[in-house]
Design brief:
With 368 residues, the chain is mainly beta. It has one domain: Glycosyl hydrolase domain, family 43 (Tachylectin-2, Chain A), CATH 2.115.10.20. 6% of the residues lie in helices and 41% in strands. Strands 18, 19, 20, 21, 22 and 26 form a six-stranded antiparallel beta sheet that branches.
């Protein structure tokens, strides 16, 4: 299958050999763009990456993660009329580690929640349900090394945010919400963290599905068996997987753009993969054995003296579907800059038929 796509006078070509097309003028947002607006030295940043994306008042709104120079991450906001260029950065961060003056849900243990994210807030995902925007983000504890909880904030106007604290009181870094109830329940994809310091293997190789009667209830029930799993072997996802962008509803099913890692002698390169969940029963899933995006030099175009955070990484926290089925994928390059890529639901759907893998082993189900 081949497809020619036009987005805002930008023409590109897709095929099974190139199912995702990098935007020619990447990066779309960098630390230099943010530092022109955030002039307070305390807010000077070294990165802009891993952004949640949504549509808000006819604009594409981005909540991006940035490292401050002291290593703590904060979440900034930018908007664009076309979601491609001319991004306008808001004058102040949208979310920073909370303090007692922030707005919390009724009954919250404010002291506990302040400690929960004093080490930084990062990797926001945005899911709109009715008139409320649900933001899941990783919150790092201020005093316990490597303790991370995926936490929840909600907003209706991207000015006032209500903090609800951790979705679950277990270590977790990747949680994405489906944008509607399915069979009367809210649904999420989650990737548990191992208790060990090793960041690959174990439960890092699993994605599980979870259900709740209410998103804000802190009462998610995670299915005990993985929905997707890697058993090892020579896979680009063989050592680590996790949900990336919130699932997108397409005519073929719920599109899940996830990240995968295969450890090498020179590090842990991150790639983007795709899975497709049944619209009526998201526990039924198909997975493409072929990644749609590998990291390259084109993903981190920076100035010679710029800081580069983590080499060989492409990572998404947000994507948007246009009415014609075009998919805009917003992804971080090397945890350093924000990039954009384009695809189409028909091309991605073809991958599941041509290059399927067993969702619970990662073994290819097609002949080479």
């Amino acid at each position: 299958m081949k497809k020619d796509i036009l987005v805002n006078d930008y023409v590109f070509h897709l095929s099974l050999n190139e199912p995702v097309h990098r935007y020619e003028y990447n990066p779309i947002l960098t630390a230099h763009d943010v530092n022109k607006v955030w002039t307070d030295p305390r807010l000077r940043v070294t990165t802009v990456h891993n952004a949640g994306i949504t549509v808000y008042k006819d604009n594409i709104l981005m909540l991006f993660r940035s490292h401050l120079r002291n290593g703590i991450s904060v979440i900034g906001m930018a908007k664009s009329e076309n979601g491609i260029n001319n991004w306008i950065v808001s004058e102040q961060p949208a979310l920073v580690p909370c303090n007692e003056n922030d707005v919390f849900a009724l009954g919250s243990d404010i002291k506990k929640l302040v400690e929960n994210e004093a080490g930084g807030v990062e990797d926001p995902r945005i899911t709109q349900i009715n008139d409320t925007y649900y933001i899941t983000y990783s919150a790092y504890h201020g005093y316990e090394k490597d303790r991370v909880r995926v936490s929840l904030a909600t907003t209706k106007d991207f000015r006032k945010y209500i903090r609800f604290g951790p979705l679950l009181d277990v270590d977790m870094r990747n949680v994405v919400l489906f944008p509607e109830k399915i069979n009367g329940k809210f649904v999420a994809l989650m990737r548990p963290n191992d208790a060990t310091a090793d960041q690959t293997g174990g439960t890092f190789k699993q994605i599980r599905i979870a259900y709740a009667k209410e998103i804000k209830s802190n009462d998610w029930k995670i299915e005990p068996e993985p929905l997707m799993k890697q058993e090892g072997g020579p896979s680009a996802f063989g050592d680590k997987i996790g949900p990336g962008a919130p699932p997108i509803k397409t005519k073929h099913g719920w599109l899940n753009i996830f990240h995968g890692v295969r450890s090498t002698m020179d590090g842990n390169p991150y790639v983007l993969g795709v899975a497709l969940h049944d619209l009526a029963d998201p526990a039924k899933v198909k997975v493409s054995n072929i990644p749609v995006l590998f990291p390259s030099a084109a993903d981190c175009r920076v100035q010679q003296d710029d800081y580069i955070h983590v080499p060989n990484v492409v990572f998404t926290c947000g994507a948007i579907r246009k009415e014609d089925g075009t998919i805009l994928i917003y992804y971080g390059g090397n945890d350093t800059v924000m990039n954009l890529a384009f695809s189409h639901e028909d091309i991605l759907n073809e991958l599941f038929d041509e290059f399927p893998q067993d969702p619970l082993t990662g073994i290819p189900l097609y002949e080479l």
